[in-house]
């Protein structure tokens, strides 16, 4: 019988639940915010030094880029859950096999998606009805960004491994270095060398390569069960099957939700370049709310996975409640702050009054309702951590994809302004939150009490 590794190794199977989740979440939140900061820096530099059309071009490309990488993010979630469960059970051999399998999968996905992004960029943007005045810049950004996609995908997998092992501080450190690199390169390439959207994409590629190299270098030298050896890189079929079982639903979910976001972006494109630029600018601000929510979700996934692997079932449920409370408090506070300083925030991205108005309008529809999104993702994260990845997938697909598609087809034609697009978001969040609450309250997704045993 395997026993849990003690929590000095970064595990969360003992000690204060609030402190474990909070201290694990903080590096994740700061890391995600740093990543969002350098993405925002791209938009701020492009909007101020290149113009509104260039800012719209970055936005048009970004939604399709997220669609391409969405499946790889699901794969990283699946790998992280499996690694966390084996760590909780103290199964060092399986931890090592899971780590090496996940990195091989990430490498394959990285190569395939890099090629797809470069080859299909123009066709995909045409399908999105990207306006002619921003098309060429959008294609340029898309192709150059795709050239560095491999590094981003491998980094995400490496970060997932570090997070599963409770070493989220490393992810924060490497993202801090990448963010600083990106901001410096943005200034050099855009403000000084006048390279436009090409400079923004190249700066992002280089910064992602830096974080990828640093994280892999650490994994290759760390003295623990999740150490990486190039000689051991191979796909273990049993482990890969477990990762697919957990990660495939999340990957499909991410892809389909990203597809719905592409359709939303297509709807925004119909309102012209100024609306596209305002929407793009706000989405960068939006990340400072959503990414911490996703960090809490990732934290409770790891917490639930480790404690489920150790048989601490009561602790899993308590961790879920703590995560929901943390997400609620954070989103209410930040939503209020964003609304209070909306003029100043949107003014950072553009001097165009129409662009600023579109961005501020998005704030009014998004900011008061982020707490609903925190409930949806907090419960989903806990369920994934115990291996129940299909129910969250179904809920998120129905609410954030199917419902949105029907809204675009049936409701949006009755709106003559962009408010119809913005209203879609809080309504779909609320639908998803109600569905996931009903499942969590009625389904038997967790055994009662405590039972030491093997990972299921």
From TrEMBL:
Primary subcellular site in the record, as a coarse category: membrane
Membrane spanning residue stretches: 21-38, 65-87, 99-121, 141-165, 172-193, 199-222, 288-308, 320-341, 361-383, 390-410, 422-446
Membrane topology recorded in Swiss-Prot or TrEMBL: Multi-pass membrane protein
Keywords: Cell membrane, Membrane, Transmembrane, Transmembrane helix, Transport
Protein's cellular compartments: Cell membrane
PANTHER family: MULTIDRUG RESISTANCE PROTEIN YPNP-RELATED
Protein name listed in UniProt: MATE family efflux transporter
Origin species: Suilimivivens aceti
């Amino acid at each position: 019988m395997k026993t849990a590794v003690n929590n000095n190794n970064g595990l969360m199977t003992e000690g204060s639940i609030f402190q474990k989740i909070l201290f694990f979440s903080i590096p994740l939140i700061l890391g995600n915010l740093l990543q969002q900061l350098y993405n925002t820096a791209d938009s701020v530099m492009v909007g101020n030094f290149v113009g509104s059309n260039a800012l719209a071009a970055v936005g048009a490309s970004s939604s399709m880029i997220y669609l391409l990488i969405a499946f790889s993010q699901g794969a990283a979630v699946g790998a992280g859950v499996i690694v966390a469960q084996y760590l909780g059970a103290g199964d060092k051999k399986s931890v090592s096999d899971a780590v090496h399998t996940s990195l091989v999968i990430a490498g394959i996905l990285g190569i395939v998606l890099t090629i797809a992004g470069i080859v299909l960029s123009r066709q995909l943007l045409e399908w999105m009805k990207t306006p002619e005045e921003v098309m060429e810049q959008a294609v340029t950004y898309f192709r150059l960004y795709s050239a560095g996609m491999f590094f981003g995908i491998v980094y995400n997998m490496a970060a997932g491994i570090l997070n599963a092992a409770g070493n989220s501080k490393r992810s924060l450190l490497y993202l801090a270095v990448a963010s600083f690199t990106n901001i410096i390169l943005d200034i050099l390439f855009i403000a000084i060398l006048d390279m436009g959207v090409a400079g923004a994409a190249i700066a992002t590629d280089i910064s992602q390569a830096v974080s990828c190299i640093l994280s892999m270098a650490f994994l290759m030298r760390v003295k623990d069960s999740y150490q990486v050896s190039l000689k051991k890189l191979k796909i273990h079929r049993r482990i890969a099957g477990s990762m697919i079982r957990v990660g495939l639903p999340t990957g499909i979910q991410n892809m389909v939700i990203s597809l719905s976001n592409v359709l939303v972006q297509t709807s925004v494109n119909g309102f012209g370049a100024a609306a596209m630029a305002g929407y793009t600018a706000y989405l960068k601000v939006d990340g400072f709310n959503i990414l911490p929510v996703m960090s809490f979700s990732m934290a409770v996934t790891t917490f639930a996975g480790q404690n489920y692997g150790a048989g601490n079932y009561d602790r899993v449920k308590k961790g879920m409640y703590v995560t929901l409370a943390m997400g609620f408090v954070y989103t209410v506070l930040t939503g209020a702050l964003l609304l209070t300083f909306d003029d100043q925030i949107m003014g950072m991205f553009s001097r165009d009054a129409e662009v600023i108005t579109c961005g501020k309008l998005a704030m009014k529809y998004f900011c008061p309702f982020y707490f609903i999104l925190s409930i949806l993702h907090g419960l989903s994260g806990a369920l994934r951590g115990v291996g129940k990845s299909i129910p969250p997938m179904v809920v998120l697909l129905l609410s954030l994809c199917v419902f949105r598609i029907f809204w675009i087809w049936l409701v949006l034609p009755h709106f003559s302004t962009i408010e119809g697009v913005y209203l879609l978001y809080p309504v779909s969040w609320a639908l998803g939150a109600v569905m996931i609450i009903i499942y969590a309250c009625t389904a038997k997704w967790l055994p009662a009490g405590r039972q030491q045993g093997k990972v299921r």
